Amino acid sequence: MSDLFDVLKRGEEPSLPAHRICLVGASGLIGTAVLDESVGRSDMRVVSVARREFPLPLGARTEVLVGLPEDWSALIGAARADVLVCALGTTIKAAGSQAAFRAVDHDLVIEVAQAARTAGIDHMIAVSSVGADRTSRNFYLRTKGETEEDLGKLGFRRLDILRPGLLRGHRADKRKLEGAGQMLAPIADMLVLHGKWRKYRSVRAATVARTIFALVQERAQGRFVHDFDSMRRVLRRAGD
Prior knowledge:
Elements: H1 2-9, E1 19-24, H2 29-38, E2 44-50, E3 62-66, H3 72-78, E4 83-86, H4 92-95, H5 98-118, E5 123-127, H6 139-151, E6 158-162, E7 167-168, H7 176-191, E8 203-204, H8 205-216, E9 222-226, H9 228-237
Parallel strand pairs: 1-2, 1-4, 2-3, 4-5, 5-6, 6-9, 7-8
C-alpha cells in the first residue's frame, strides 16, 4: 500500500497488474498473432501451453510450458491465468481422418476447457469458425458447432466464441488453396460479401489477436459469439 501512496504523491499513474492469459494453440496462425501482438504490452502476460518449444517473437511477454496433451491439465493450472485462450485447430487433411480431426477440434478443446475450470479460470475465449452449426451436414462445421455447444455447458462466467472467416496471415505450414484464397479474399470482401454475407469476410490474424486482447478486458458475464462485424465492434469499444 505504501508503494501506491508513493506513486500517487509523485503524480504518476499507478500500474495495474497485467492480465494473465493461458494460450493453447500458440504455434498456429492465431496463436502466433497473439504472441506478436503481446510485444510491447505491459497489460498482458501470456503463458503458452504447447507440445514442444517454438520460436517466439522478440520482446514477447510470454513463457512456454511444454508437455504432452495428457500433461496439459497440470500445466494450465501452473499458468495461474485469469483467462484461457484456445486457438487449437487442425484440418481433416492434416489430421488424416475425420476421427483424428474431431479428437483435436472437439475432444482436446473440451479437455483444455475442463482443465481451465478445474484451475479456477472462469473466462474462456475460443477460436471457432464462421458457419459453425451443430446441425450442419458439413462435418467440419458440425464439429465446430458441437464444440461450441459443449463449451457452453462448462459453467464459465464468460465465454467468448470467435467465428472468423478466411484468416489472412503468414502460416508456417503452406496451404496452397488457402494461399490463393488469401490473395483473392480482399476482392471478394469488397465486391461480393455484403449484407448477410458480411460474416464470411476474411480477417487478418492480427485483427483477431487484438480482438482477443480487447475481450480479455471486458467484464460482462454470459456467452458471446463474435462474427466479422462483432469483432469490429469489440475493437471500437476498446478504442482500437
